[in-house]
Amino acid sequence: MTNTASILDGNSFKASDAEGLDPRTRSLTERRRVLGASYRLFYRHPVELVRGRGAHAWDAEGNEYLDLYNNVPSVGHAHPAVVAAVQEQMSELNTHTRYLHPKILDYADDLLSTMPSAVDQIMFVCTGSEANDLALRVGREFTGGKAWIATAEAYHGNTALVSAHSPSLTGAEEMDPALRVIEAPDTYRLGDGTAAGAGAWWTARVAEAIADIEASGDGFAGLIIDSSFSSDGIFLGEPGMIAAAVDLVHAHGGVVIADEVQPGFGRTGTHFWGFERADYVPDLVTTGKPMGNGFPVASMAARREVLEAFSLKRPYFNTFGGNPVAISAAQAVLDVIRDEGLQRQALEVGHELRAAVRELQGVHPALGDVRGSGQYTGVEIVSDREAKTPSSAVALDLLEELRDRRVLTSVCGPNNSVLKLRPPLAFRSTDVPRLVEALDASLTALGV
Prior knowledge:
The protein is an alpha/beta fold and 448 residues long. It has helices spanning 23-31, 80-90, 102-112, 128-143, 160-163, 195-216, 243-251, 274-277, 304-311, 324-339, 342-359, 392-404, 432-446, and strands at residues 49-53, 56-59, 64-67, 119-125, 147-151, 180-182, 220-225, 255-259, 284-287, 298-303, 367-372, 377-384, 389-390, 407-408, 410-412, 418-421.
């Protein structure tokens, strides 16, 4: 059942937590009131991070943390190659994209070379929210429909249009009246993550949503999906699990938006893009934060015929989308992933990580399921392993225990019961024992 609380409220500091804080941390949390009440902090005892390198970060007192959550600096905190590229271009020129500049064209060609040949045009923006906003508009223009399908805990961004298509924000935001919301394919509780198992179940949910749209007269626009179901609980399943559902969308004239902000850029290890691993070709591909290692750059790639329905009718201008400095950061990230073999490293180290965590299942009954691919791992925390009962309370307490042992991560899923292990791709084999030791000690401390 979908939680009515915002995804931002799971691992979140509350005003009631302030009493036990040290004076400096309490002062900083109080000063944050100038930012307004909407902003959220991680942890009951927030962390003041001041620098980072690779998969590690340091707080203001010099304490070092292992970062198991931050996909924003995708190739590692403060990667020297990205820093140098930004500094060099900033010292030369930074302006908008209504002037010619070869770097944006070179990068466009380079990034599109990683995608299926059918996806052959690209537009640059500043954020994943902007990319998904544009994609929703383009898809509606192409199909003439207005009704999208999204999964129950999906989060696609924070513009008015995108928030209204992010069901995880239900309760905090009003959803688009035409949006159809379906459950994600829960590979833990549906038996398996194959096309015949969870995939068939999910295809049936997509079929029901399409039938409802067609009966209503809303007009079918398509499906917006993160192929790893990141916010829903990380259900990657087997390659091809959701391909039949995508085929069904296309058969009914809809388009598919692959939101690659989280699973893209080599994170799943087996493939460069999440949709590749899922074995389908999307109509629109959106990227965000990891593309520039945290520098504000994002993109929407598209099939030419889909984009033309939009672009031949109206101009689009994004002042800083794809500016020379942003593109320099993005190109550096792409080069680093290749030069340092980070996709292969994600595959190998992610396998080691999950194998090591699974060994703890024999000791700690709260570890209900360990799933994922590459450097994307979901660890389901349960109160009853046989019944597969999710335990939000234990999961949130576990985050605090891990934070006290200087391991940073967060939760996802409808019950905030899934540990979301999504480190920078710089995470190495030598970091795995640190995670396992902290996780073992934390579960022991909680008696689970």
